[in-house]
Each structure stands twice: as structure tokens, then as C-alpha cells.
């Protein structure tokens, strides 16, 4: 099945975002683990797995539509401490949310409802789980202070 060229381009642009999110979560989870923040490292590792699933779904759809997946991720923004890690991960998620909405609108315009339906759970996951959770963590840091937050993230 040959997909619409604009949709294939848009899916590839989403793919490089998802790959960047995956890689950024990967390095952040390993940094947090090294720092002894195992609870936070585990959650960020879970986010990496979710992003891998999103990338997999995009790759499968691109291939089905006759395209070639672009496997080079966008540049990473690696944090240097917990607040900057959470902020940079949130920035990626917010960018992906906006991008997903744009691609879903394109799918609607081109009447590719199957692709739109594949993207909808990604939008829900990105907006309701990933971005919301990151915003909560940053809010918690503000409420309980960074040292107390860090202490809460040391145990699994």
C-alpha cells in the first residue's frame, strides 16, 4: 500500500522525535541510576520503553505505507541535574504533543483514518502520562524542595 507522501514525511518527522525522546530518556535513566536515584531512574526507564513502543508503531506504519523510516534521532538535550533532566524531558514531550496533533490533522485532511487512529493512543500517552507526570515532578520539587524530592527518589 502506498501512503500519501506528506503523511510519510510527517510520520518520519514524528519518528525522529520519538527516537530522540527514547535516547534522551535512556541516558537520563542511566545518569539517575548512577546518582543513586533508583526510583526516578526506574520511572524514566519506563518512559524510555514507552517511547520505544511509539517508535516501533511509527516504523511499522511507515513500512506498511511503502516508506523508508528515518532512524536518525533529533539532537538530545541532556540534563546536568534532576531539575534540568525533568525540564528537558518535558520540553521533548510538549514538542511531540504538538507534532502529533499536527500530523493527526494532516491525516484527517488526507482521509488516512487508520494512521490517525494509530497516533491517537500515542497522543494520549504522551499528553496524559509522560508530560503530565513530568509537570507533577517539577511541581513537587517546588513544593517540597529539591533535597526532599531527591531523598524520596532514592528507594525503588
TrEMBL record:
Binding site for Fe cation 2: 51, 93, 127, 130
Pfam families from the UniProt entry: Ferritin
NCBIfam families: bfr
Gene giving rise to this polypeptide: bfr
Biological process per Gene Ontology, one example term: intracellular iron ion homeostasis
Annotated ranges, domain Ferritin-like diiron: 1-145
Record-stated family: Belongs to the bacterioferritin family.
Catalytic activity: Fe(2+)(in) = Fe(2+)(out)
Keywords: Heme, Ion transport, Iron, Iron storage, Iron transport, Metal-binding, Oxidoreductase, Transport
GO cellular component, one term: cytosol
Organism annotation: Rubrivivax gelatinosus (strain NBRC 100245 / IL144)
Binding site for Fe cation 3: 46, 50
Alphabetized InterPro entries for the sequence: Bacterioferritin, Ferritin-like, Ferritin-like_diiron, Ferritin-like_SF, Ferritin_DPS_dom
Function: Iron-storage protein.
Entry protein name: Bacterioferritin
GO-annotated molecular function: ferric iron binding; ferroxidase activity; heme binding
Residues involved in Fe cation 1 binding: 18, 51, 54, 127
Amino acid at each position: 500500500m502506498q501512503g500519501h507522501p506528506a503523511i510519510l514525511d510527517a510520520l518520519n518527522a514524528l519518528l525522529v522525535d520519538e527516537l530522540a525522546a527514547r535516547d534522551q530518556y535512556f541516558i537520563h535513566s542511566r545518569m539517575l541510576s548512577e546518582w543513586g536515584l533508583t526510583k526516578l531512574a526506574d520511572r524514566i526507564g519506563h518512559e524510555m520503553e514507552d517511547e520505544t513502543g511509539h517508535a516501533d508503531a511509527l516504523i511499522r506504519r511507515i513500512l506498511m505505507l511503502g516508506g523508508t523510516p528515518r532512524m536518525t534521532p533529533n539532537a538530545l538535550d541532556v540534563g546536568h541535574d534532576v531539575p534540568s533532566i525533568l525540564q528537558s524531558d518535558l520540553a521533548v514531550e510538549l514538542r511531540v504533543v504538538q507534532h502529533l496533533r499536527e500530523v493527526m490533522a494532516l491525516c484527517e485532511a488526507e482521509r488516512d483514518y487508520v494512521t490517525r487512529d494509530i497516533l491517537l493512543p500515542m497522543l494520549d500517552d504522551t499528553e496524559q502520562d509522560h508530560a503530565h507526570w513530568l509537570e507533577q515532578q517539577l511541581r513537587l520539587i517546588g513544593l517540597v524542595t529539591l533535597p526532599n524530592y531527591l531523598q524520596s527518589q532514592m528507594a525503588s
